[in-house]
Amino acid sequence: MIIGYHASHEQFAPAELLSFVKQAERAGFDAVMTSDHITPWSERQGNSGNNWTWLGAAMAVTTLPFGSLAIPVGLRYHPVTLAHLIATLSEMFPDRLRWIAVGSGEAVNEHVVGKGWPDKHERDQRLQAGADIMRGLLKGETVSRALPWFSVDNAKLWSLPRRPPAVFGAALSAETAAWMGGWTDGLLTVRKPARELADIFDRYRARGGGDKPLALQLQLSWGSTRLEARIAAWDQWRTAAAPADILADLAGPADFDNVTREVPPEEMDECVPLVSTAGDVLRLLDECRSCGVGEVYIHNVSRDQPAFIRFMAREVRPKLPQRR
Question: Quick check: 190 and 219 in contact, CB under 8 A?
Answer without folding.
Answer: yes
